[in-house]
Amino acid sequence: MADAARIMHYVLAVSLLSFVAHAHAQLSTTFYSRSCPSLETTVWEVMKQAVVKEQRVGASLLRLFFHDCFVQGCDGSILLDAAGGEKSAGPNANSLRGFDVIDTIKARVEAKCPGVVSCADILALAARDGTFLLRGPTWKVPLGRRDSTTSNQSLANANLPSSGSSLSTLISTFASKGLSATDMTALSGAHTIGLARCSTFRDHVYNDANINSSFAARRRKTCPRSGGDSHLAPMDVHSSRVFDNSYYQNLMTRRGLLHSDQELFNGGSQDALVRQYSANPALFRKDFVTAMIKMGNINPLTGTAGQIRKNCRVVNR
Ligand code: HEM
Ligand SMILES: *[C@@H]1O[C@H](CO)[C@@H](O)[C@H](O)[C@H]1NC(C)=O
Ligand SMILES: *[C@@H]1O[C@H](CO)[C@@H](O)[C@H](O)[C@H]1NC(C)=O
Q: Whole-structure pTM over 0.85, yes or no?
């Protein structure tokens, strides 16, 4: 009797487990727990040193992961140096940073677990640690992605949103990747950290009406009408080195840096959520984590697809 009950219990447990596995696609937070147990510590140590040296790099790696996932899925394609690849696309060229940190992590991981861990997964972990090191939330990262053998510049130009995007374009760009408007508004909160170049916010501070006038005047001082394209300004006027919810408070006082930022609070469908995030930091952090995990699930290569690159910049020969 007891045995029969135990068997029944076992059968139920197994079918429940396989259901859960299917519900969560193919990635798993324990993917490398046997094949590379030191992985997460290695990523953390390198990220910690890098952020101590330069805080902005935490922001740069978060952005790098976003730009990887939106083009062909989270497959490390952004890391390839090949001519005509994603790195040379408009939103990426002279803009993306932190590739050297990925190289350092990859070299240390290869020394410990050769040929096992993908560049795509290293980037997912580095983005999580960069966020946490700037006092943002942390989360368990589903792993098991493999690396692409291609990188496509025109696909990057077509799939990445630009700072001039309207609210409806932002919503549809994220929807095309399976992300909701709520995910989009929560993920945009990443603009609480890091810096932007004058060329990305010039139009907004000179030509838009929905901007705080003293804020616009301040930004125009270091971002001339012509020239100075690479002059930098903080994405969050209040605290661009700290991952907090002040991004949303800025939007409510019309101090979004990019046109696309202010679109989230300009009388449209996201106004109510911006108000909620500005008043409730815990809700923002919770929704941000949910959306980061969803973004990390965009079209991964798994099983025997793709490869595990030895060097994140080049396809294995
Ligand atoms: C909603 C659409 C988005 C647009 C139009 C957009 C656009 C931009 C632009 C134009 C910059 C400045 C780049 C430069 O001047 O070189 C920037 C920076 C940044 N973006 Fe976004 N972004 C979006 C969403 C996101 C998402 C989803 C994330 C991450 C979850 C993110 C993370 C960042 C970070 C952290 C920076 C600062 C990077 C650094 O300082 O190196 N952005 N973004
Ligand atoms: C890049 O992607 C586009 C759109 O899918 C495709 O038409 C083009 O052939 C690709 N280019 C390369 C070099 O693979
Ligand atoms: C612009 O922002 C400043 C503070 O950042 C505030 O004192 C001022 O009232 C705002 N101006 C307008 C017109 O909203």
A: yes
Cβ–Cβ < 8 Å for 185, 270: yes
User: What tens digit of pLDDT does each residue of 49-104 get?
Assistant: 999 999 999 999 999 999 999 999 999 999 999 999 999 999 999 999 999 999 99
pLDDT at position 25, please? 53
Residue 8 lies in a domain: no
208 is in an annotated binding site: no
Report in angstroms the alpha-carbon separations of 214 from 88, 218, 229, 258.
35, 6, 21, 16
Pocket test for ligand 1, best of 78, 162, 169, 191 (most atoms within 8 A of CB): 191
**pLDDT value at 246 more than 70:** yes
Are residues 101 and 142 located together in one domain of the fold? yes
- Give the structural domain span for 46: 39-159
Is the minimum distance from the CB of 155 to ligand 2 under 6 angstroms? yes
Is the predicted pLDDT of residue 32 greater than 90, yes or no? yes
pLDDT digits (tens, 9 = 90+) for 260-271: 999 999 999 999
**What SS3 state is found at 315?**
coil
The answer on whether 274 is annotated among ligand-binding residues is no
**Sign of the torsion formed by the C-alpha atoms of 129, 238, 284 and 184:** negative
Contact 139, 131 (CB under 8 A): no
Q: How far is 294 from 292, CA to CA, in rounded Å?
A: 5
User: Which of 117, 137, 159 corresponds to the end of one domain?
Assistant: 159
Q: How far is the CA of 116 from the centre of ligand 1 (A)?
A: 30
Q: Is the model's pLDDT at 3 over the cut of 70?
A: no
DSSP of 22-67:
HHT-S-BTTTTTTT-TTHHHHHHHHHHHHHHH-THHHHHHHHHHHH
Cα of 257 vs centre of ligand 3, distance in Å, is: 14
Enumerate the β-bridge partners of residue 234: 195
Q: Record the tokens describing residue 213, joined without a space.
A: 């006038």
Number of compact structural domains in the chain: 2
Concerning whether 67 is annotated as a catalytic residue, the answer is yes
